[in-house]
Amino acid sequence: MSGWKNLCRLLPIVALAMFVLTGCGDPYLSALDPKGPVAESQLSLIKLSFYIMLGVFIVVMVIFTYVLVKFRKRPGQTGIPKQVEGNHKLEIIWTTIPIILLLVLAIPTVITTFDLAEKFPSEDVVNVKVTAHQFWWEFDYPDLEVSTGQDLYIPTGKKVQFQLTSADVIHSFWVPALAGKTDTNPGMVNHMWFQADQPGVYQGKCAELCGPSHALMDFKVVAVSPEEFDTWVGKMKAAAERTPATATAQQGQEIFNKSCLGCHAVGGQGGKMGPNLTAFGDRDKVAGILEYNKENIAAWIHDPQSKKPGNLMPAFGDKLSDQEIDSLVEYLDGLKINE
Ligand code: HEC
Ligand SMILES: [Cu+2]
């Protein structure tokens, strides 16, 4: 009876484990499935330390089991066994082995670190300035004069060189399939680079607890062929020339320019307090987390706090009528650069 009860208690743990392990199935959110040279060399270090640990674990367990069996208490045995203290030979052995193991770990780690730093690209790169905000990501391409929010476009087969900083607290920039994390610290600039070999969408995460919506601070790396990338840059620049397609969207644009443009840029104009919305209509997520559809866009404008607690966008549900919000949604949904 009590045995069953105990088994039932294990159920939530098993359920949780299944839930967590399903998360590991996402092919583009795993450091164990690298999609570029930086992540590949980092994975080789992960494997090396894993196999060393596994070796140590097996040796320790074998000795442990042997000692348990050999020196177990036998029937009729009385008193405590003979106590042994100080054994130079053993002490030298168990000091030397860890030193050797640490060297085996340290040498490739140092070599890889220097190697990645040496390969730090100098020419023929795409420069991106990453600014982390509570709770979204800003990507500026200083040489191309283009900016995006949440979605980072990069060309495949080319090194992308990052300058990382933060607008508020410490965040950490992490695209598991492409490279290890790098902190973004306010008031200073960190550097890193990576490269995606294949086209694809690679998930990114903030990896440093940064406030109530830290867990919702997702972004995407969209890797496309170099030709497509150039086309994308051209379209982003041409976006300044667009005009709203309908009268409703036109009304939405007027409201947007009055109430939103101070924080959100569209087509090179506007503030940087919120994500750049130039290609918002092409997104497949709203605010990085909600499924992209008109209801969710309207719900976000109504009350952003209920979607992402602690974020820095004010609610407009009590300032704008439903009709005004609908026209804003129509305007935002028309902000596409891909037809
Ligand atoms: C005080 C600055 C501020 C104002 C004014 C503002 N926003 Fe925002 N907005 C933000 C911030 C900050 C975020 C990012 C929130 C987050 O994800 O943490 C955001 C996010 C968004 C998003 C989601 C963007 C994305 O990347 O998916 C939309 C859509 C949006 N705002 C629309 C509007 C509209 C429409 C207005 C005007 C009615 C407006 N905002 C006014 C600061 C502002
Ligand atoms: Cu963060």
UniProtKB/TrEMBL annotation:
Domain annotation Cytochrome oxidase subunit II transmembrane region profile: ranges: 23-120
**Enzymatic class:** translocase
Residues in domain Cytochrome oxidase subunit II copper A binding? 123-235
Keyword Transport listed? The answer is: yes
CDD domains, A to Z? CuRO_CcO_Caa3_II
**What kind of membrane protein is this, topologically?**
Multi-pass membrane protein
Transmembrane feature ranges: 49-69, 90-111
Name the chemical reaction catalysed here.
4 Fe(II)-[cytochrome c] + O2 + 8 H(+)(in) = 4 Fe(III)-[cytochrome c] + 2 H2O + 4 H(+)(out)
Q: Which family does it belong to?
A: Belongs to the cytochrome c oxidase subunit 2 family.
Q: Give the protein's recorded name.
A: Cytochrome c oxidase subunit 2
UniProt lineage: Bacteria, Bacillati, Bacillota, Bacilli, Bacillales
